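C-alpha cells in:
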C-alpha cells in the first residue's frame, strides 16, 4: 500500500515536471516569437525611416535644382542674388540631413519643416519671376513695336527725302534757262572763205520761263575750235562751272523778266581758223543752257 502511494507520488511529480517543462517551452517559444516579431518590426521601421530620409534628400535636391534653373532664366541681378542665397541655404540643410540618423525623428521633423518653409519662399520667388517674365515679354513686344514704328518712320522719311529731292530737281530743271534758235553767222568780205571772215555773229533766244528767277543774268558763250581749244581774248577770262574755272569767249549781261529775250553777241576774228566743225556752248546761272555746232570750209 505504501509502495503504491509512493509510486503515485512519483508519477504525479513527473507529470507536474513534464507540464512545467511544456509550459516553460511554450513561454520560451512565445518569448522568442515576440522578440523576433519586435526585431522584425524594428527592422521594418528603420527601413521606413531610411526611405523617408532618402525621399527628403531627393526633395531637397529637387528644390536646389529648381533654384539653379530659375537663376539662369532670370535677368534681374538682385533676384539672382536672392535665389543664390536661398539655394545655399538648401544645400546647407541638405548636408545637415545627410549627417542625421534616419531614426532621429526630431531632427528629421525639423528638416521637413525647414523644407516646407523653403518651398513657400520658392513659391514667392516664382510669382516674382513670372511677373518679371511677363513684364519682359511686354517690353519685348513694345520694343518690337517701337522698332517697327521707327523703321516705318525712317522709311517714310527716306521716301519723303527722295520725293523732295526729285521735286527740287524738277523745280531746278523747270527754273533753268533755255537757249533756243542758236545761230552762228560769219561776217566779212567773201565770208564764205575762212581767210576772209572778220567776225562771228552769235544769236539766240532765252526762252520764256515763268519759274526761273528774274533779274540781271550774265550769259557766257564759249566757241570751241575743231581741236577743242577755246577762242579767247585772254586766258584770264574764266567763270565757274561745276566746281571748276573754265574759259569763255564772250559774255553779256541781260535783264530777264521771265519772258523771251533775244541775245546777239559778236566775236572779232583775230586768230587763225582751221576748217572743221566748231561748237558754241551757252551758259547762265551756272548751267549749260544751249549748244550749237557749225562747220567752216576752207
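Residues out:
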Amino acid at each position: 500500500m505504501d509502495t503504491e502511494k509512493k509510486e503515485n507520488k512519483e508519477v504525479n511529480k513527473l507529470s507536474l515536471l513534464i507540464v512545467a517543462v511544456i509550459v516553460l517551452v511554450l513561454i520560451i517559444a512565445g518569448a522568442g516569437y515576440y522578440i523576433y516579431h519586435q526585431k522584425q518590426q524594428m527592422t521594418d521601421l528603420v527601413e521606413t525611416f531610411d526611405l523617408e530620409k532618402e525621399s527628403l534628400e531627393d526633395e531637397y535636391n529637387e528644390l536646389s535644382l529648381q533654384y539653379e534653373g530659375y537663376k539662369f532664366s532670370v535677368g534681374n541681378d538682385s533676384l539672382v542674388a536672392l535665389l543664390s542665397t536661398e539655394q545655399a541655404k538648401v544645400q546647407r540643410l541638405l548636408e545637415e540631413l545627410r549627417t542625421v540618423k534616419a531614426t532621429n525623428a526630431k531632427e528629421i521633423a525639423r528638416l521637413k519643416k525647414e523644407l516646407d518653409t523653403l518651398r513657400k519662399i520658392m513659391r514667392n520667388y516664382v510669382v516674382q519671376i513670372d511677373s518679371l517674365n511677363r513684364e519682359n515679354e511686354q517690353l519685348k513686344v513694345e520694343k518690337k513695336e517701337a522698332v517697327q514704328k521707327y523703321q516705318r518712320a525712317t522709311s517714310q522719311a527716306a521716301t519723303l527725302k527722295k520725293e523732295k529731292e526729285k521735286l527740287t530737281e524738277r523745280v531746278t530743271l523747270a527754273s533753268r534757262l533755255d537757249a533756243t534758235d542758236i545761230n552762228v553767222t560769219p561776217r566779212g568780205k567773201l565770208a564764205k572763205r575762212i581767210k576772209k571772215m572778220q567776225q562771228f555773229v552769235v544769236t539766240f533766244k532765252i526762252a520764256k520761263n515763268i519759274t526761273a528767277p528774274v533779274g540781271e543774268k550774265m550769259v557766257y558763250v564759249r566757241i570751241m575750235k575743231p581741236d577743242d581749244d577755246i577762242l579767247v581774248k585772254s586766258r584770264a577770262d574764266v567763270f565757274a562751272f561745276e566746281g571748276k574755272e573754265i574759259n569763255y569767249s564772250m559774255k553779256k549781261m541781260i535783264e530777264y523778266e521771265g519772258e523771251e529775250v533775244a541775245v546777239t553777241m559778236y566775236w572779232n576774228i583775230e586768230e587763225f581758223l582751221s576748217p572743221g566743225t566748231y561748237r558754241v556752248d551757252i551758259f547762265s546761272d551756272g548751267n549749260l543752257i544751249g549748244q550749237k555746232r557749225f562747220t567752216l570750209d576752207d
